[in-house]
Structure formats: structure tokens, C-alpha cells
Amino acid sequence: MLLRGAMAVLLLALTGCDRFDPPSDRPATALEFPEPDRPVADIISNQFSNEDARDERNEAQVVMDVANIESGMTVADIGAGEGYYTVRLATRVGEDGRVLAQDIDREALQRLGQRIDRERLENISIKLGQPDDPQLPVDSFDRIFLVHMYHEVTEPYAFLWRLWPALNEQGQIIVVDVDRPVNRHGIPPALLFCEFDAIGFELVEFIERPDIRGYIARFTRGDARTEPGAIKVCSNGGSDG
User: Fold this and answer.
1) Is the pLDDT confidence value at 171 over 80?
2) Under DSSP, is residue 108 helix (H, G, I), strand (E, B) or coil?
3) How many C-alpha atoms does 76 have within 13 Å on its Cβ side?
């Protein structure tokens, strides 16, 4: 009887283990935020395309003009990669401006650091970020650029929530991306708008630009940032779900 009782306890314990949720591979710092109800694109390159080809389309100049980048501004380039925007932003903001280049790839930042030294760009600093946290200083930036990278952010709600404090009072987030499914390295505008709105950002302007093979969206902070537990997850169609 004792043996039978012990076996019954062991069997109950084993069947109980099946009810436990598997351990999450999400970072602990993101667990208070919802997961996106959509795919997340794999990071396939630190360089969106050849810089000469992008310059032939006048991409950076078009985007900086839309973003109203002026001398003396403080700008962040998130997902800076090989620095296509970083070095051009540094020239536009001039000696009195500052550019922070951020990426989650240490090797990419090392290569960018070498480029900065080679081109003697003294108004650029570099910083390693985290997938769910850009780790930017508070109340610091006139513009934050997310160029062809937002669809690769694995924790978009945590990421945007923590991006909010980095903007100064008149600051804006500039998103450059492509209108196509996330798993094809783009993001439909309606879905983009929904995810930013879920945090409390407001859309200022949206422009389709076939000449740069994408679109440009500008966002500012709204009246209040949504608490993590109150964030409504957006469906792939761009509506709350």
C-alpha cells in the first residue's frame, strides 16, 4: 500500500508538470509588456542596401528634409548599422549638433566606430542598445530615426514605451520603411500607426515616397504614455486585437 501510494504521488507530480508553461525566451525586462500579434522580421543585414545606390535615389537628403533636420539638432539613429544615416546626419546637424548611433550589434558598432574615426566625425557618439530598450538618455533628442529597422524589433511595445522619454518636448520619431508584410521586411502603414498609437504617440505626417522605395512617417508624443498593462495589442490588419 505504501508503494502504491508513493507511485500515485509521483504520477500526480509528473502530470502536473505538463501543465506548467514552458520557460519564455523573452527578456525578463519585457515580460510586463504584451507580445506583438504579428511576425517579427529576422535581422538579415546591418546595411539595408548599397550606399551609392541609396545616394542615387537621394534617400538620406529626402528623409532629412522631411524631418526638418537643422544645424545644432541632437539626433539618434537607432539600428545605425554601417552608418549610412549616421554620417549624413552628422554633416547636416554640424559642429553644434550631436548624433547618437545605436545598435544591438557590437560588431556593427565597432565597424562604425572605425568609420567615424576614419572620417573624423567628432559630433557622433555610439551606444549599444537592447532589443527591448534603446537605452537613450531622457529628454535629449529633437529627432529619433528608425530606418528600415522597426519591423525587426522583437519587442515593439516595450521598445516604443522606453523610447518615449528620450524625446524632448518638441521631439519626433522618424520612421522609414516599406509597405509590405513584416515577414518580407516591411510593415503595413496601418499596423505601424496602430502600434505607435497603442503607446500614446500621435502621427504627424505620412508620406509615400516611391523615389526612395518606401514611406516616411513622423510621430510625436501624445498627452500620456499608456501603462504597460493597458496596452492594446494590434492585429496584423492594423486594428486592435
Assistant:
1) yes
2) helix
3) 27
- Which residue, 85, 81, 84, 89, is CA-closest to 110? 81
Instruction: Record the pTM.
Output: 0.86
Compute the radius of gyration of the chain from its Cα atoms.
21
49 vs 198, higher pLDDT: 198
The sign of the CA dihedral 178, 179, 184, 185 is positive
Report the 3 state secondary structure along 170-196. EEEEEEEECCCCHHHCCCCHHHHHHHH
Amino acid 50: pLDDT: 82
Query: What is the DSSP secondary-structure string of 225-241?
Result: PPPGGGPPPBPTTSSB-
Q: In sequence order, what are the residues at sequence separation of 6 or more whose Cβ sits closer than 8 angstroms to the Cβ of residue 236?
A: 37, 38, 182, 188, 191
